[in-house]
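Lab notebook, bench 4. Still working through the backlog of constructs that have no structural model yet. Next entry is a single chain of 494 residues. Request: give me the structure tokens for it.
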Amino acid sequence: MDPLIEHHLGITRRTLLQSSAYGVGGAALSWMLNRDGLAAGATGSPSPTSTAGALKLPDLPHFAPKAKRVIYLFQNGGPSHVELFDYKPKLRELHGQVMPEEYLKGRRFSSMTASTAGRLVLGNVEPFQQYGKSGAWVSDLMPYTARIADDLCFVKGMQTDAVNHAPAISFLLSGSQLPGRPTIGSWLSYGLGSANEDLPSYVVMTSVSKGTSCGQIFYDFYWGSGFLPTQYQGVKFRGSQEPVLYLANPEGISRQTRRGMLDDIQAANRMRLSESGDPEIATRIAQYEMAYRMQASVPELSDLSNEPKSVLDRYGPQVTEPGTFAHNCLMARRMVERGVQFVQLMHAGWDQHNSLTTELYTQCADTDQPSAALVADLKERGLLEDTLVIWGGEFGRTPFIQGDIQNRKVWGRDHHPYAFTVWMAGGGVKAGISFGESDDFAVNAVKDPVHVHDLQATVLHLLGVDHEKLTYRFQGRQFRLTDVHGKVVRDILA
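Model written out:
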């Protein structure tokens, strides 16, 4: 067939509308938006795309930031606040007795303990001690964290809306229990850009304790970009000697040859971008370039041979084993040193429904030393002041038992969304304080509660972002991380 005839036959109504959308129609739309005061400049909110297909990025930061980067040590599964940081003598005192119903009345728990009648109080499995000048209560399960208590801000009145893992994790990271919204790292990558063109601005690493029976799954939407262009989604580094797949050139392909191939592909992509304005084509261009630059940056990042033995020893015996939490913590420090803005470490295995006296010990052993080492390492290098470190999970655990009170080997606790603890360090947060309180049984937050949306608003504020102004128009309305909620917790700001 004549190529010209074939081309004409290929022009469909969809193609015509698509190619003309950025011509006369785009000009008319722009005129109407400006007439009605709804253009991006009038609202302060970014418009998804310009007529050239490139994003109009928001003008950030809104004010001087206290933090330049974030390391989120996310503990999948719901660490038991009553076992680790929220000391309640009443639980030990009334161990084995029926939980007072007035504390649980009207509360919703998972289907495993939906009926709270007759639930028995379970005391903490290990003793607590007070540490540092702050006198923070920390369990004997966390001896390394206890040593840095004066560097930490314990937020003990955390609250969430979800009672199951995936919705609760999605809610904490994206502001919605349903998948499809941008996660906090994506919002910051979109809003603040990157400090290093050779590495992604948002990196994710996952790990799980060996031998755990807890079955949390790392869903991709935990670091997804939702309706933002996919160039802002988290880049997952694998727990292996090759953190990112397919970076190395095939045998016989030199770096110069690869550069030429990419240039040709980029030219074709830019032609298509100018025709369609599809932001995903801009993403493709950006990601090809990033992959090319990472061919040099990632091997250097992953090479721990120049780390002193004293540093490796500080992070613990698993630090040189890719895929472990200890290794990921050291990698996180190396990433933020090189300009990565948001590092999300996710460690699964905290879901102790029947393993408080076994697997909880393993979880603490695997995460306690590396977490404390990271904070201390950042502090010694002068990075903690403008690096925000967050440690915590999607919810806590019930103060009543799940299982047989007479059989210590199978003691467990169910999911608990009404009061749990996270700790924060550096990045403009007060050090050596405990903020908020739960009641005598650690069931409900009774003083200075902090909702998930409040935590999100506070993190953005520390990075110089007004959570009400960082928005993105999608499906007819402006979306933001905190939805229509959230207030900055100013009492924890340094």
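Notes after review: Residues 3-38 form one domain. The mean pLDDT is 86. Flag for follow-up if needed.
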